[in-house]
Amino acid sequence: MELTGAEIAIRCLQEEGVEYIFGYPGGAVLHIYDALFQQDKVKHILVRHEQAAVHAADGYARSSEKVGVALVTSGPGITNAVTGIATAYMDSIPLVVISGQVPSYAIGEDAFQEVDAVGITRPCVKHNFLIKDVKDIAPTIKKAFYLAKSGRPGPVLVDIPKDISNHKAEFIYPGSVNIRSYNPAGKGDSAQIKSAVQLLMEAKRPMIYSGGGVVLSGASAQLTELVRLLGFPCTNTLMGLGAYPANDKQFVGMPGMHGTYEACMAMQHCDVLLAVGARFDDRVVGNVEHFAQVPRKIIHIDIDPSSIAKRVKVDVPVVGDLKLVLDQLLSELRSSKQKPDASGMAAWWKQVDEWRVKGGGLRYKNSTEIIKPQFVIEKLYEITGGDAFVTSDVGQHQMWAAQYYKFNKPRRWINSGGLGTMGFGLPAAMGVQLINPGATVACVTGEGSIQMNIQELSTCKQFHLPIKVVSLNNRYLGMVRQWQEFFHGNRYSESYMDALPDFVKLAEAYGHIGIRIDKPSDVEPALKEAFARKNDLVFMDFQTDPTENVFPMVPGGKGLSEVILSEDL
Amino acid sequence: MRHIISLLMENEAGALSRVAGLFSARGYNIESLAVAPTEDPTLSRMTIVTSGSDAVIEQINKQLNKLIDVAAVMDLSEGEHLERELMLVKVGSEGAAREELKRKMAVFNGRVIDESDRTCTIELTDTCAKLDSFLQAIGSDLILETVRSGASGIGRGERILKL
């Protein structure tokens, strides 16, 4: 029996086992929405803005091992989605975004709601397709899912013109995909792995630097085993938090701009650095020339060859899927029977521990008068038993959440690391909550970020998503304010948030519970009360210290050892 | 340093813009770019002339390989190779000047493909450097138009880029 293109598209999603899609209807996707209406396997979550649809699909993918799916219309539908797509692209998140397009015969005529979706998304997708024949829909969607999740994952766009979604064809879903020009890496080269083991065994001051790739590859268990077997210090980047348990003594904290002193110093002064699924981001290594001043050997394992030797020189590159490569590395280490140099390691740990003492740990001056944002995160960690899914927006609150919430499991920390997208947290939390029903989901945000997608409180109401919004409201765009204080002579240009809404009333207006917390002594009771409400979304508006800054800090363009510990040092 | 990179890609709409977009988005130079289908109509072959440090060239090769539509990449300048560029140049010349032009053209193995009373159009195929020399030899004053194809490159002998 022949089906319409729209029906075929939905059947493809069913074949892929897609349970939820996030979207917003419009003219060019009416046929697809009609097909969606006539089945009940794929459930649709109606967001209030297309950016949120993509962030929600993104949170869904980050907190599971599934591909997130979003459906948007042509023109403004897809342009609104672009921020979400770019966010997923920067953090290598597997998404399939289906967009409607004006009818194929109208393409290029500046038709109503026409935009060159393939052109506008090209720099921020792993790949994209414009469908020209109804027969291509099924094989293209099959390819889109395969591309999104294989190799280095990423978002894939499928643009379907309206007329094609109404043409008919036989539905045949391909069993497999073969793309001759695309061969994602599998195992690592065994000679390179032998060289890596050699370097690791000779190291006097080794360091393991693990990134988001470990989470994406599902290689957290392998990484943990490797770190313990070697006995080396380990740092997780912002994207890699949770891949190695934060409570473990070999964990030295996050590196980089707002990393711990010991992580920064160990990165800078190690003699062998094992980089696993990390990309030497400017926020991690700071100034690359400064980083290169200390001679060290670098082993870099990554599935994407273009991530290797992009910003720093690499001595032993290993291209492959981290899970497989780490297994190879573990078996090579075991069969080599060599052990790391014990006396060298003892001296190195002594040094690392000295840095731990000198850095003084993550710290802040608590107050009984005014709520310190770090205190809220510490309490959030305690009250949720360290087991919540925590999404965040972007800014100071994001850094405090990354620092003070100790992530011991992968896929629990959901944030926009690469693109730094404000407005990510709440919609991402919706996706997280849907794929993890019953789990505790907290969205750590600020009064600036939350307003970028606050309309999603309405979506949360419609779909009964009991997210806990932890808003650190300091009446400033805090990270902007911090940089203005440090680098722009205290000229707080446009960083004060005047005329803020009453967030309690706003939450109530959307049908949720709102709580305003003004005093430090009320922080814990408020969090307890909120998290006890398993079935309700609670919006907690914490009035926090507007002058608080994020420390430690490696100022932009500086080297890792030039880290500033705090204002009073 | 100047590099000449050859690649095979799916002959699909938008494939060229993926390559061009990659160069502009990442700030790489393109000196020239030549593309056309191969004997297998589903594949296009592209020759890109670019320049940059070793690290930049390494990234260009890797980034090109990363494009889903790109099936194979070869940096021709890493080994023995040949390159040729086609140039059409229209020169304003009459009488004795034209004889002089033709004499120079013969030295460069060019040929006249069109003549009018006041113009003479020459076709020349050679390395990019040779074409530059020819233009220098005739002098820019007389040149009315120049059209160059950009370099096409191929490996010498057994050095073959094929799927």
Overall strand count of chain A: 19
Q: How much of the polypeptide of chain A forms β-strand, as a percent range?
A: 15-25%
Largest inter-chain interface?
Answer: A-B, 17 and 21 residues
Strand content of chain B: 35-45%
Radius of gyration of chain B: 18 Å
Total helix count of chain A?
Answer: 21
In whole angstroms, the N-to-C terminal distance of chain A is 75 Å
Q: pLDDT average of chain A, as an integer?
A: 97
Write down how many β-strands of chain B occur, each being a DSSP E stretch of 2 or more residues: 9
What helical percentage do the residues of chain A reach?
Answer: 25-40%
Rg of chain A, Cα atoms, Å: 24 Å
The overall pLDDT average of chain B reads: 96
Beginning-to-end CA distance, first to last residue of chain B:
28 Å
Order of helices and strands of chain B: EHEEHEEHEEHEE
Spatial ordering of strands, largest sheet of chain A: 3-2-4-5-7-6
Q: Identify low-pLDDT runs of chain A.
A: none
Structural class determined from secondary elements of chain B = alpha+beta
Give your account of this protein's structure.
The complex is a heterodimer of chains A (569) and B (163). Chain A is an alpha/beta fold. Chain A has 21 helices and 19 strands. Chain A has helices spanning 5-15, 30-37, 50-62, 76-90, 117-121, 137-149, 190-202, 212-217, 220-230, 261-269, 282-285, 288-292, 322-336, 342-359, 373-383, 396-404, 425-435, 456-462, 478-487, 503-509, 523-532, and strands at residues 2-4, 20-23, 43-46, 68-72, 95-101, 127-130, 155-161, 168-170, 206-210, 234-236, 272-276, 297-302, 316-319, 389-392, 413-414, 441-446, 468-473, 513-517, 538-543. Chain A has a six-stranded parallel beta sheet with strand order 3-2-4-5-7-6, sandwiched between helices. In chain A, strand 6 (127-130), helix 6 and strand 7 (155-161) form a beta-alpha-beta unit. Chain B is of the alpha+beta class. Chain B has helices at residues 15-25, 54-66, 95-107, 128-138; strands at residues 2-10, 32-37, 43-51, 70-75, 81-92, 111-115, 119-126, 143-148, 152-155. The longest helix of chain B has 13 residues, at 54-66. In chain B, a hairpin with a 3-residue loop joins strand 6 (111-115) and strand 7. Chain B is elongated, with a radius of gyration of 18 Å. The mean pLDDT of chain B is 96. In chain B, the strands form two sheets. In chain B, strands 5, 6, 7, 8 and 9 form a five-stranded antiparallel beta sheet that branches. Chain A binds chain B through residues 118-119, 122-123, 126-127, 130, 147, 179-182, 304-306, 309-310, and chain B through 9-10, 13-14, 17-18, 21, 25, 55, 58-59, 62-63, 65-66, 68-72, 163.
